[in-house]
Amino acid sequence: MIRALALVVALALPAAANEVIVSGMSQNRVSITADFDGSEILIYGAVKREAPPPDGGPLEVIVTVEGPSTPVAVRRKDRVAGIWVNNASVHVDSAPSFYAVATTGPLNHILSDIDNLRYGITIERVIRAIGIAAEADKAGEFVLALLRVRTNEGRYRILEGKVELTEDTLFRTDVVLPSNLTEGEYKVRLFLLRDKRVVASQERVIGVRKEGLERFIFNLAQQQPLIYGLVSLVLAAVAGWGASAAFRLIRT
Amino acid sequence: MQLYLPIAEVSVNAFLILGLGGIVGFLSGMFGVGGGFLITPLLFFIGVPPAVAVATGANQVVASSVSGVLAQLRRKGVDFQMGTVLLFAGIAGSAIGVWVFSIMTRLGQVDLFVQLSYVIFLGLIGAMMLQESLRSLMRSRKPGGAPIRRAHVHSWVHGLPFKMKFRASGLYISVIPPALIGAAVGFLAAIMGVGGGFILVPAMIYLLGMPTKVVIGTSLFQIIFVSAFTTIMHAVTSQTVDMMLALLLILGGVIGAQIGTRVGVRLKAEQLRILLSLLVLTVSLRIAADLLVTPDELYSVAPGVLP
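^ inputs. structure came back:
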């Protein structure tokens, strides 16, 4: 029985499973309220070992934070008859609204291509763009453009060397969530690596939700659009009339 | 003070939005335009998604127009008969515009279509107004005084059937020209996401020959209803009206509109027209530049559903 259990554990965990992640986060939910202006999340943890650290390369840590994914359209402008117009477009099946990768060192030094592909760690491996080659010439450039545009917007971040690792045991990193957050579940993944191979991983979730007034307005707009539209108009008319009346009072 | 907008899903500076609303409100009160053609591009500029900017702009226009029309009402500056004719024709035109807009959306060229309409209509009307008002300013400055302006210039317009008395405007003309103008404005308003005042005001002055006194109030009257119709359409079909953003814009806007109306009364009609035409031309050139200058980033990313 014990042997069978040990076998299951050995199969379920990656190779060299004598190192396990124990982690925590400064908060596991983010409330978007009216004064929300971005949020900083501390992700920390330790490496638990039953035996002394194995031989081999030094321990490295990668932390990823991934926002909810949506399909996106990437469009390219071309000059047609002297003016710039959207000409070619490509539809990407799924791209995260936010993605941050924090590491202890340069990604190409600590992570092998095979494990990157297997675990989907860098942003290029997270975006799903299947079958775009048929949609436009040089479809690959559209994906590069998507990365570039979102990196410039601060939505995609590579934070190489931003994970602090102490005594091969304790690690911590800060990930800044921008103010233009989308609601949803943000997936946090932690990887331990040795010799460019993933030796342990863990997944956690941060819930990002609108709260209070933000929640109320959003729900009303989604669930009762006609009432919401009418309320908006009444507010507008009352504000217009109110200001007019107030000004008359001031003048007399 | 940063404020997170629930529908637009961006965090903005509340005072910046209040200020924007105030400036646009001031101009709308002064010129009798709804201000949609200013507020929508300004909102794009501060990072509000275009769909939300267009819909929320329409909502703001309702408030500043209500505020403006009340001020005009006390000056007896609203021709309700003319306003009603323009309004019904406007809603019909707007319905056609929404239909054309949906066709362009399906073809994937709605951005270009909107930009080109802005450039063409704002450019044309701005240039026409500027030329006309400069000429009349020159004439009035010439020694010997301005030529006598006749109250009624009879043209082919007066030969059309279905004549109707517009008491407040002092006109006895066929309903066909105002109806056509109303429909055209409603159509353009739906396509460009604006109230349409910048087209309506010159059309009433130059095409219908209405006295300047009633032009602003009457156009505001028509704009209230056309933009209210637009707001509801957007709220129901795409849920893109941001109440929080609208309230901030309105708060700044209604105050600006009150001040603007008072300043507008003090300025001479010619000066007012020159200023408005310059403003319209500036917006038109700004949008034209976007189409002509090579953009820094050729690619754009839009979240959306798969076709």
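Chain A touches chain B through 63 residues (CB under 8 Å). The longest strand of chain A covers residues 83-96.
thumbs up if we can close this ticket
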